[in-house]
C-alpha cells in the first residue's frame, strides 16, 4: 500500500523566497536606480535553470530516476512553445547535465556535464566539463573545455564559464571558436582567465555586445554576494546591486537578448517592495497521490497528537527557541523565546507537552545540552497572546554532556534520546516525566561511534535511528538502523544497495521518521546527489538534502523532493487527514523576512 498522511519538513534556502529584478539600461554604462521585481510563486518543481531561445524552452529536470544510486537525476530537456508541447530529453540516458545556455542564434547549446560516471563525492566544485551540441542534433556532443560550469554565450563563437582557479579564487574563464564550432576540431581547448584574483566571481551572464559580462561577486570583507558588470576591455567592475541593497545576497544574473536589461535573483526582505512575509506553512506538490507535504517556516517540526498544531524551531541559535503553529498556518505562538532549542517531539498522549533539546546544536559529546519537558496551558492557544507561558522541566543532569534528539514512546512513559555522557554519542531511554533524577535511565546502544536522531515507532516495537557504527571513522557515513526498545534485534536497513555493495557505505542518511502505520520511513539522504550547481546558491551547505521513503525491509525506495536546496527534519502526521485547502498563505499569516542568511563556510575570502 502506498504511504498516506501529511509530511511536514523544512528547506534551507527555500524556493518560495526568491525574486527576480530587472535593471533597464539607458546606455551601456548607466542603469536606472530602481529595478522592477518579478515574483516567483512557491513551488517544489523538479524543473530548474530554464532558458528560452527561438521559441524553444530548455530546462533541467530531475523527474527521471537514474540507473543507480549516487548519480544526479538532473538531465536536459526541451519543448517547443508555439505548438504541441512534447517534452524531449536531450541528455543521453545515464548522462548528468546542469546549467544550459543557448547561443545567440539558437544554433548551439552549451551545458555543464558530469557525463555518465557515478558521483565521485565532489560538491564544492563539481567536476563538470563544458559540452556543446547543435540544437538540431543534440546527440552530436563535444567536450569543448574540461573542468567548468555555468556556461554563457556571447554570439555563437564565445563561451564564458566559471570554475575555481588554481589560486583558490572562483573566476570567470572564456574560450573562443576561431570558426564555426561544427568545423572546429581542436577540442578540448585551453581557456583564458577573464576576471582577476582577489575576489570570487560566479555564474556569468554575457552581454551580446561582446564587451561585458555580468557576474555575482563575493569580495574580501563583504558578507554578501552582489551583481557587478565586468568590462572585458578596461578590466573594471561596475557595481550594480550593492548600491541598492548592500545587506542582501544577489546572485545568478541574466541578460535580456537585446542586452538592455539585467536580471538577477535576490532574497526578499523588509526593505524591498511587494511581499516581505513568508507563510508559516506552505503546501508542496507531492509525487504520491495520498501523501501531502507541508514546508514549515522552521526546523524540526513535530505534530501534536490530533494534528491541530506543530512545534518547530524558527532558528537554531539564540534567536530561535520553540514556536507552536496551528496546522492550518493561521497563527503562531512563542513557547520558548531567545534560547537555543532544537529537535522537538510532541508527547503522543499529552496534547500540551513537548520535549526538546536545550543548548547548542552540532557540538561535541561533552558540550552541555539537556532534554527538557515543556508543559503549557491549552487555553493559551485560543486567545490573542503571542507568548505562551510554559513550565520547563529538565530531565537530564547538567554534568552529563550532550543530550539531544528526544522521541517519546507511544504510551508517553519513556523518552529515547542521544547522549554523549560516555564520551561517545549513543542512545539512552529515560522516564518521560521524572527524567533520570527519580525515574532512572538505561543505555540502549553502546560503542565508539555516533548514534543519533532516534524515532520511536507508532506501535512501540522499534526505534529507528541514524548511525555510523558500520564505519565509525567516517563522520559522514550514516545509515538507518532499527532496534527493539529492550536493545535486542539491532539491524541495519540497506537503502542504496544490497549488503556488501560498494554504494551502501556511501549513504549519508539522517532525520529518520516513521509513517503513522509503522510500515515506512521518511528520511533525508545524499543518494540523489545534487540537482543544481551548489556554488550557484548562496545558502547551500552540504551534499545531502532530499527527502525519500523506504519500507522497513529496504524496499520501495521513493524520492519526494527535487530541488537545489537542503530539505530535511521531516515529521509524519499520525492523526486524521489535514484539510490542506484551509491553509492560510496570505501576508496576515506569516513572518517578516529579514533577508539574512550565511554564505557557506567553504566559500573562503581569506586567500593569500
Can you tell me about this structure?
The chain has about 600 residues and is an all-beta fold. About 0% of the residues lie in helices and about 45% in strands. It has one helix and 47 strands. Strands 2, 3, 4, 21 and 22 form a five-stranded antiparallel β-sheet that branches. A four-stranded mixed β-sheet has the order 24-25-1-46, with no helix packed on it. Strands 5-6-7-8 form a four-stranded antiparallel β-sheet, with no helix packed on it. A hairpin with a 6-residue loop joins strand 38 (about 450-455) and strand 39 (about 465). The radius of gyration is 25 Å and the shape is globular. Residues about 15-20, about 25-35 and about 40-45 have low confidence and may be disordered.
Number-wise, the strands total 47
Structural class: mainly beta
Mean pLDDT: 87
> Per the principal axes of the C-alpha atoms, what is the gross shape?
globular
* Beta fraction: 35-45%
Distance between the termini: 58 Å
Provide the gyration radius in Å.
25 Å
Roughly how much helix do the residues carry, as a percent range? under 10%
Instruction: Please outline the major beta sheet.
Output: 5 strands, antiparallel
- Give the uncertain stretches in residue-range form: 15-20, 26-33, 38-45
- Number of helical stretches of at least 4 residues: 1
Amino acid at each position: 500500500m502506498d504511504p498516506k498522511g501529511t509530511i511536514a519538513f523544512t528547506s534551507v534556502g527555500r524556493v518560495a523566497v526568491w525574486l527576480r529584478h530587472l535593471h533597464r539600461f539607458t546606455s551601456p554604462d548607466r542603469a536606472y536606480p530602481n529595478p522592477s521585481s518579478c515574483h516567483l510563486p512557491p513551488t517544489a518543481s523538479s524543473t530548474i535553470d530554464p532558458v528560452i531561445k527561438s521559441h524553444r524552452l530548455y530546462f533541467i529536470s530531475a523527474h527521471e530516476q537514474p540507473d543507480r544510486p549516487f548519480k544526479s537525476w538532473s538531465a536536459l530537456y526541451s519543448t517547443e512553445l508555439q505548438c504541441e508541447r512534447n517534452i524531449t530529453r536531450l541528455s543521453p540516458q545515464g548522462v548528468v547535465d546542469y546549467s544550459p545556455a543557448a547561443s545567440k542564434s539558437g544554433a548551439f547549446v552549451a551545458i555543464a556535464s558530469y557525463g555518465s560516471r557515478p558521483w565521485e563525492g565532489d560538491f564544492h566544485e563539481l567536476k563538470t566539463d563544458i559540452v556543446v551540441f547543435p540544437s538540431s542534433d543534440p546527440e552530436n556532443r563535444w567536450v569543448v573545455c574540461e573542468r567548468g560550469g555555468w556556461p554563457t554565450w556571447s554570439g555563437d563563437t564565445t563561451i564564458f564559464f566559471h570554475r575555481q582557479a588554481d589560486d583558490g579564487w572562483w573566476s570567470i574563464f572564456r574560450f573562443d571558436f576561431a570558426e564555426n564550432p561544427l568545423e572546429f576540431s581542436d577540442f578540448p581547448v585551453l581557456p583564458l582567465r577573464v576576471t582577476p584574483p582577489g575576489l570570487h566571481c560566479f555564474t556569468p551572464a554575457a552581454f551580446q555586445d561582446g564587451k561585458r559580462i555580468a557576474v555575482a561577486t563575493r569580495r574580501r570583507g563583504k558578507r554578501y554576494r552582489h551583481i557587478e558588470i565586468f568590462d572585458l576591455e578596461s578590466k573594471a567592475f561596475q557595481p550594480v546591486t550593492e548600491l541598492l541593497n548592500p545587506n542582501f545576497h544577489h546572485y545568478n544574473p541574466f541578460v535580456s537578448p537585446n542586452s538592455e536589461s539585467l536580471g538577477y535573483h535576490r532574497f526578499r526582505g523588509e526593505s524591498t517592495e511587494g511581499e516581505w512575509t513568508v507563510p508559516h506553512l506552505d503546501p508542496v506538490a507531492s509525487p504520491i497521490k495520498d501523501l501531502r507535504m507541508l514546508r514549515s517556516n522552521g526546523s524540526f517540526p513535530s505534530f501534536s497528537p490530533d494534528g491541530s498544531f506543530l512545534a518547530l524551531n524558527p532558528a537554531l541559535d539564540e534567536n530561535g527557541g520553540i514556536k507552536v503553529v496551528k496546522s492550518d498556518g493561521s497563527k503562531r505562538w512563542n513557547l520558548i523565546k531567545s534560547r537555543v532549542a532544537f529537535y522537538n517531539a510532541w508527547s503522543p498522549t499529552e496534547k500540551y507537552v513537548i520535549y526538546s533539546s536545550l543548548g547548542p546544536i552540532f557540538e561535541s559529546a561533552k558540550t552541555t545540552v539537556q532534554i527538557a519537558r515543556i508543559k503549557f496551558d491549552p487555553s493559551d492557544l485560543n486567545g490573542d497572546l503571542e507568548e505562551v507561558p510554559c513550565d520547563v522541566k529538565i530531565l537530564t543532569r547538567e554534568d552529563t554532556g550532550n543530550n539531544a534528539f528526544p522521541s517519546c514512546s507511544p504510551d508517553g512513559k519513556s523518552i529515547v534520546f542521544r547522549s554523549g555522557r560516555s564520551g561517545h554519542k549513543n542512545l539512552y531511554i529515560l522516564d518521560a516525566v521524572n527524567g533520570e533524577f527519580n525515574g532512572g535511565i538505561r543505555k540502549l546502544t553502546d560503542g565508539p561511534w555516533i548514534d543519533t536522531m532516534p524515532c520511536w515507532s507508532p506501535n512501540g516495537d522499534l526505534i529507528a535511528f541514524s548511525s555510523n557504527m558500520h564505519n565509525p571513522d567516517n563522520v559522514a557515513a550514516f545509515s538507518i538502523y532499527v532496534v527493539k526498545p529492550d536493545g535486542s534485534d539491532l539491524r541495519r536497513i540497506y537503502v542504496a544497495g544490497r549488503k556488501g555493495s560498494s554504494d551502501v557505505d556511501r549513504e549519508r542518511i539522517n532525520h529518520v521518521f516513521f509513517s503513522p502505520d509503522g510500515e515506512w520511513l521518511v528520511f533525508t539522504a545524499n543518494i540523489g546527489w545534487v540537482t543544481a550547481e551548489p556554488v550557484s546558491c548562496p545558502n547551500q551547505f552540504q551534499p545531502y538534502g532530499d527527502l525519500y521513503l523506504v519500507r522497513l525491509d529496504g524496499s520501495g525506495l521513493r524520492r519526494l523532493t527535487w530541488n537545489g536546496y537542503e530539505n530535511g527534519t521531516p515529521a509524519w502526521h499520525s492523526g486524521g487527514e489535514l484539510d490542506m485547502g484551509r491553509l492560510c498563505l496570505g501576508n496576515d499569516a506569516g513572518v517578516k523576512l529579514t533577508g539574512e542568511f550565511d554564505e557557506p563556510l567553504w566559500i573562503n575570502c581569506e586567500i593569500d
